[in-house]
Amino acid sequence: MTTVAERAKDLVKVDRRDGKLALAHIYVAFIALAIGGLCGLLQTLVRSGTFTLPWGIGYYQILTVHGVLLGLVLTTYFIFGFQIAAVSRTSGTLTDKQRMLGWVGFWVMTIGTIASATMVLLNQASVLYTFYAPLQAHWIFYAGLALVIVGSWIGGAGQIGKYIEWRKANPGQSSPLLTFMVVVNLSMWIVCSLGVAVEVLFQLLPWSLGWVDKVDVLLSRTLFWYFGHPLVYFWLLPAYMVWYVVIPKVIGGKIFSDALARLSFMLFLLFSIPVGFHHQLVEPGISSFWKFLQVVLTLMVVIPSLLTAFSMFATFEIRGRALGGKGVLGWFKKLPWGDARFLVPFIGMAAFIPAGAGGIINASHQMNQLVHNTIWVTGHFHLTVATTVVLTFFGAAYWLIPHLTGRVLTKQMNKLAIIQAIVWAFGMSIMSGAMHIVGLFGAPRRSDFSTYGGSAQAAEWIPYQIAQAVGGTILFIGIVLVLYIVANLLWFAPKGETEFPVGEISENAEKTPMALENWKIWLTICIALILFAYTVPVIDMIQNAPPGSKGFKLW
Amino acid sequence: MSKKREKEPDLKGTLYSVGVLGAFIIITWFMAFYLFIDRF
What we know:
heterodimer; A: about 550 residues; mainly alpha; Cytochrome C Oxidase, Chain A; B: about 40 residues; 1 helix; about 0% strand
């Protein structure tokens, strides 16, 4: 338990029992990184046309392992580990009940993960991480996914419980920024995952069990993307928590504005959910008016994204100038480039510039035809989640893990972490760059290596596929390096105290309006926007439903 | 308003940085738009 005096001296440590819960999640995350990363390497090798998988392992099998383990397991577990530690650090030690919810959630999620992963490894569920119907997996795969979602609700309830307790104990006060951000992220997660829960429980499970013959594909994809787009913001917002709250402290500066940070998170809550149609822009059965409306709402996300960019630049400039940086950009050189806790997430931030620009292109209604179902999209989300988000998570792991294990990041490990991030950026530039370019040439995503019957156009793609394998191999070296550093921080690094950096608000910042924490207002707007964007088109989908499809197992 | 309001921080670099970022987004968007118009 942290005493008031310690809190005042900023020596706040995450309670050991909470730390254990956070670490349990982080262990699973990095195991997923090891297996999922290996599958990623194998995929790029297969697609280069120079390598065949041994022992009858299927391409789509490893593609599913890669997507599920990295897109769903690594992210969700790291996020939960980070959020538990963040809430405990900023709002105080969890109560026994809150921690118990955390553990129950962890085990429910883990049982679900093991069930789903087993079916994928047995080649009973090679349906990729989007598990689109009418591809039909074994029912245990879907049941496992349902458990992961339910587990996340239980674990999330523990974190939200701490926030409610804090608000009750401190009426009229603004909650700790990091805890507030965690609660925004969980609110978004709970609202959006209801969609995928409905899809899995009412469509895919009965259908895979043979209780019904056919599935409404359009409705299932709509429910999936109602969940799928906020999912990418569920990955991104914890990275933003690190940028807004942790990085200012790491560089020795202050948080530019508490109100701006809260406003941007609330805008993400509003504009992340009613936007799923931008993943279905070429889909028949949805009228272009509703697609257009959701495109407009999607592009609203540019506002909090640019607020974040402004806020980060301002934090850097104010700190750099305080350190003596002169001229328009002299402050940039003054930043702590030798500190992995700063540099690694910074590379992630830089990657978000092309990633964001690509995202706007993807979402631009008719222009989506240019890139739809091409490997450009794969290149895009390898910049967003696989660079911006994971490099920020790696950068966070370099202080979070030693904070929780009572160890320190040595100079050598700091240096290796910097090398790791450079290796990652280099490998990803090659791989994602090649994906973007060849995607514009029409190369499809998801598919196994093929010459498409000797097509001249497909032959043009092969050099880029080889470039992807080169980039993928370099990235795998990056994975080995990060696993080495994480193992060191978990078990071998010297014992000592590591700070959990939490920035202070700048004295120049305006007072935060309490309206930013009025959940009644924000959740009402959030639900109103969802109803506005989805009610009519979903009724239309149900009333004029397509004939329905039986299940296919094409692997 | 206090007459002795503290000097605002110098954020000229931030202004240019977000300007360049905005320009990058607009340029890439128009490049893709050109391709789209050319193809469809």
